[in-house]
Amino acid sequence: MSTMRAAVITAPGGPDVLHIQQRPVPALSGPNHTVRVRVVGSALNRADLIQRAGHYPAPPGVPSDIPGLEFAGEVAALAPGVTRWQIGDRVFGLVPGGAHAEYLTTHEDTLARVPDTLDLHTAGALPEACITAHDALRQARFAPGDRVLVHAVGSGVGLAAVQLVRALGGIPFGTARNAEKLTHATALGLETGFVPDTSADGHPSFADAVLAATDGRGVDIVLDLVGGRYVHEGVRSLAHRGRLVLIGLLAGRESPLDLSRVLARRLQITGTVLRARPLEERIAFTQAFAQEVVPLLADGRVRANIERSFALDEIAEAHALLGSNETTGKLALRIAD
Ligand SMILES: NC(=O)c1ccc[n+]([C@@H]2O[C@H](COP(=O)([O-])OP(=O)(O)OC[C@H]3O[C@@H](n4cnc5c(N)ncnc54)[C@H](OP(=O)(O)O)[C@@H]3O)[C@@H](O)[C@H]2O)c1
After folding, report:
1. Edge-to-edge strand order for the sheet containing 147-150?
2. Are 158 and 185 in contact (CB under 8 A)?
3. If we measure between CA atoms, which residue out of 228, 194, 186 comes closest to residue 211?
4. Residue ranges of domains in the chain, CATH in brackets
5. Ligand 1: distance of its center to the CA of 240 in Å?
6. 247 CB under 6 A from ligand 1?
7. pTM of the model
8. Any bridge partners for residue 41, and if so which?
9. Atom 25 in ligand 1: residue holding the nearest Cα
10. Over the stretch 94-111, which tens digit does the pLDDT of each residue have?
11. How far is the CA of 13 from the centre of ligand 1 (A)?
């Protein structure tokens, strides 16, 4: 076993630049504590599409042309010093790239054990959405009873956030441009959903509706997966001492901001990325996921929301579908049977 099948970005561009190629199986040389995983299940994320288009290069030391941020599989080989795992253990987690391939290597402490109740194809579609939502809630100092507004609530991250907030004792609200996605999210625990109104000036408006739905008080936390003008409205939606965590920029990089509101209400705005974090922080968010989220996955209080599953050979079709904005939840990728 010296080569493996991998999805490869052959040039910056559309889904047709993705080809399945043979690549060397990643070596175990390098730092101790490295584990090689045979990948069974994975899933797509927006970052894969942005990387494919040439706008989101992989961090140093990560395969530059093999996309894929999340995986579930079996431990296949151990470097010296690994104490946590044995060959054959079922694990899942995040890598900064290279998961859309039959094998990957990662530090042993960046892996969590897959509960017996989950198959590896389902498990492969959970880490990115769950860790993104969980880590953002932690950064926002979420506490039971908090009201949390989640944008793009029908996205992979959005649906995971709704379930997590509900399972942890909070009250999830959400926005989506497509009302059917709000219906889907409501079945998973969404309290109230809003379709942003763009009829006045073309810009999304939802803050007045959020304030009306929260007795004029506003929400404690906004998980902003969209950016752009959503930030302006998100700030208007926040209660006194509210926190907005900026997670995505689908609607753009710029927004007007009412600074008097930020100041007078003592608001906090935080930006976050998972992919570029140093190893210590990757270990920390993985361990927090293992301790606080995996038990919720094990007993089904938080579930994978897989709209459709694709074979690795069908990755170009999967990229095109995710880019259409028509999906609700995750598109899974079957790397092996
Ligand atoms: N910071 C991080 O570390 C991190 C990690 C993971 C994900 N993310 C970000 O989180 C977001 C969700 O990721 P995902 O993979 O879960 O997404 P996804 O499943 O692909 O869903 C994205 C959804 O966003 C909505 N959307 C797209 N363009 C929009 C626009 N211009 N205005 C408003 N809504 C728009 C669409 O739903 P509707 O049309 O129904 O609104 C679309 O279906 C992305 O921005 C992604 O980059 C960030």
Report:
1. 192-194, 171-175, 147-150, 219-224, 238-246, 268-271
2. yes
3. 194
4. 3-126+275-334 (3.90.180.10), 130-271 (3.40.50.720)
5. 27
6. yes
7. 0.97
8. 72, 334
9. 152
10. 999 999 999 999 999 999
11. 19
39-98 residue pLDDT tens? 999 999 999 999 999 999 999 989 999 999 999 999 999 998 898 999 999 999 999 999
d(CA 98, CA 103): 8
Given a contact cutoff of 8 angstroms between Cβ atoms, the answer to whether 110 and 184 are in contact is: no
- Helix, coil or strand: residue 47: helix
Q: Which atom of ligand 1 is nearest to the CA of 50?
A: 47
Enumerate helices (H) and strands (E) in the chain, giving the number of each: 11, 15
Pairing mode of beta strands 306-311, 330-334: parallel
Beta pairing class for 268-271 and 306-311? unpaired
117 secondary structure, DSSP code = T
Please tell me the distance from the alpha carbon of residue 70 to that of residue 200, in angstroms, as a whole number.
40
Unique residue bearing structure tokens 């996309």: 67
Residue 207 half-sphere exposure, CB side, CA atoms within 13 Å? Answer: 13
195 lines ligand 1 (CB under 6 A): no
Longest dimension (CA), the chain: 63
Residue of the CA atom closest to atom 28 of ligand 1:
250
